[in-house]
Design goal:
The complex is a heterodimer.
Chain A (H helix, E strand, L loop, with lengths): L3 H17 L5 H29 L31 H14 L7 E6 L3 E6 L2 H20 L9 H10 L11 H19 L1 H6 L2 H23 L6 H12 L11 H16 L7 H7 L1 H4 L22 H15 L13
Antiparallel strand pairs in A: 1-2
Helix pairs in contact in A: 1-8, 1-10, 2-10, 4-5, 4-6, 6-8, 8-10
Chain B lengths: L3 H15 L1 H6 L22 H21 L6 E3 L2 E3 L3 H8 L3 H11 L16
Antiparallel strand pairs in B: 1-2
The chains are: A mainly alpha, B mainly alpha.
Chain lengths: 338, 123
């Protein structure tokens, strides 16, 4: 079962953290040592992967164009789908990164009796994908209130916007709802769509379950199991971590350590998984190259240097041997004794 | 490495962005909040750990009961009667908003909307 193992792994991680922090002294391991290690792995691994990618040569233009390419000046071409210069590539990349434009083209293939194959636009993946990513971004920005002192206005502003509905106490966050909805959609899609299910692997399910675990433990801590979730003690720990003087001032609920442990797992796992599309989206040659193969000469960087060797130079080199063998030459040997 | 003129600056920006908390705080963790507890009162409406964790939920329930459902009956805890009221019960002992409420709320960037209807005590 490709989804059972990652689910069991995430549950095991939660249980491991919940049980391990019961042992005195383990709070320091889970609250300080593991977060530092995870962050080091995240940053180091991220840079390693990006530099590793940077070492791969991309000798030729391989953008995936999906519109009329530039041909003759009076034929209208698609500036976003077949960009020919840097400005158009930047516009294309911007829309891809900010609006997930390529997912907007997602289609669904269905076979009807007949047999008749139809393709229809399917925007659900785009909708829930973008919902997930922006919810996650807002959640990360919101969490900065635990790492920054004094809290900058941008963080407060995002938090006020996120809790604008003023439902319940503590105020419900809109992104908490949307991220759970989006994650559940992405999970259900993998499980129910036969084609997607067929190609889904353990490393597709694991991040979904892991992030779902992070979200669920976070929501539980904020709204339901608040006992011992002392936000000020947590902020002292968080801000201690980023000022390199970490302290754990009081007993904090083991649920917090489970949440933190899952986040650390995500950070450590990130550079070695498909989640690296965060950096990869900037480096994908099918997106970030201009479609200018017919305008600019692109030379393969590992081509050996071949010097031109004309016939005249060839004859100069071998003239004596050629004359000796009786091969006709264009320029005779210089006369002897002159 | 190819395109290092673009990739290396991009990576540097990324690392600087991720480590914003380090640059922003510049090694100073800031003072943890200190609150002034009432001197004469010994007990609260709930045990300390519980009231610390759930005071906002309690106030929200009180607000709904009193203002929306009209249930203004006092609550009785260990033989003592308490009105369900922020101003009459909580603020009776915790007289100072600035000394008691604000330090933790400011530290954790929590902005309770109590004071959009209630008038904060003049301090």
């Amino acid at each position: 079962m490709k989804y059972a193992f990652p689910l069991a792994a995430v549950i095991a991680l939660v249980l491991f953290a919940l049980l391990a922090v019961q042992i005195p002294g383990m709070q320091y391991l889970f609250g300080v040592v593991i977060p530092y290690l995870a962050m080091a792995l995240f940053l180091g691994g991220f840079c390693y992967r990006v530099i590793h990618w940077g070492k791969s040569p991309v000798p030729f233009r391989i953008p995936t164009t999906c519109g009329q390419g530039y041909t003759l000046p009076w034929i209208k071409y698609d500036k976003l789908e077949a960009p020919v210069n840097t400005a158009q590539v930047v516009a294309r990349m911007f829309l891809e990164i900010v609006l997930f434009r390529s997912l907007w083209r997602n289609t669904k293939a269905t076979v009807y009796s007949g047999p008749k194959l139809t393709y229809e636009s399917s925007k659900w993946l785009w909708l829930f994908g973008i919902m997930f990513h922006y919810s996650f971004l807002v959640i990360v920005i919101r969490h900065m209130r635990l790492f920054l002192e004094p809290v900058p206005w941008l963080v407060s502003f995002v938090e006020i916007g996120d809790s604008l509905l003023q439902i319940g106490a503590p105020l419900m966050y809109i992104t908490d709802v949307t991220i759970v909805l989006a994650l559940l959609f992405l999970l259900v899609r993998r499980l129910t769509n036969p084609q997607v299910r067929y190609i889904s692997l353990i490393n597709d399910y694991f991040p979904l379950f892991l992030i779902l675990g992070i979200v669920i433990t976070g929501i539980l801590m904020r709204f339901f199991l608040r006992t011992d979730v002392d936000i000020n003690a947590i902020k002292q720990l968080a801000i201690g971590l980023v000022t390199f003087s970490p302290t754990i001032v009081t007993e904090i609920s083991s649920l917090f350590y489970a949440h933190l442990f899952l986040v650390c797992t995500l950070l450590a796992y990130f550079p070695f998984s498909k989640l690296m599309h965060m950096g990869g989206v900037f480096l994908s040659p099918t997106r970030n190259l201009a479609n200018n193969s017919r305008m600019v000469r692109h030379i393969n960087p590992w081509n050996p240097e071949i010097k031109p060797h004309s016939y005249a130079a060839y004859e100069d080199e071998f003239r004596e041997d050629m004359v000796e063998q009786g091969i006709p030459v264009e320029k005779e040997l210089p006369k002897q004794g002159e | 490495m190819y395109d290092s003129g673009k990739i290396i600056p991009g990576l540097i920006v990324f690392v600087l962005f991720i480590t914003i908390p380090i640059w922003y705080n510049r090694g100073s963790a800031g003072a943890p909040p200190k609150i002034e507890l009432p001197k004469d009162a010994k007990t609260c409406v709930l045990p300390a750990a519980e009231i610390r964790a759930k005071h906002m939920q309690l106030l929200n329930v009180w607000r709904d009961e009193v203002l929306r459902d009209g249930q203004r009956a006092n609550i009785e805890i260990e033989g003592k009667q308490y009105p369900k009221s922020l101003m009459l019960t909580c603020m009776k002992c915790h007289t100072s908003k600035k000394q008691f409420c604000d330090p933790c709320h400011t530290y954790a960037a929590v902005k309770p909307y109590c004071w959009e209807c209630h008038l904060a005590p003049v301090e």
